[in-house]
Amino acid sequence: MTERNKLIIDISLALGFLVCLLLCVLGSIGIKMMTPQVQRYPQEAKRIVDITIDTSEREEFFDQLRKFANKHNFTILIDAQPSGAEDFLISMHRSDIEIDGDNAFAPGEYGPGFYHADLLHPAPDSVFDDLVSDLKSFISEVPSATFSVEK
Description:
By secondary structure, the protein is an alpha+beta fold.
């Protein structure tokens, strides 16, 4: 085999490799574009509740939220915010539903929203209704608490 033939074979192999690589890249981009993506936020809340408490009963309120989260298998995070000692972020998560809210600049007022955690596998409305109803019963244990459903 001549040097020229070897060079032609080497160039052909290199071009074939580059074409295969290009097809793989374009194929993976096409698959990603066709695969539905799970939407996180922003999404419209399925339910929103308004809760007010006397700030002196905040720890009792947090205890009731923890009991609710435990009963319904939520992971809960209650975190102070940098805006001030009385501002808190409250977040509860499980595979089908997320409950998120804060009291930004309004001590004693909380407005958590109930969201789908996975829009490809949405929870039925009845699950949201049951959770809101049960949250209301837990919050009613806080003497000064008021609870209303906005949505």
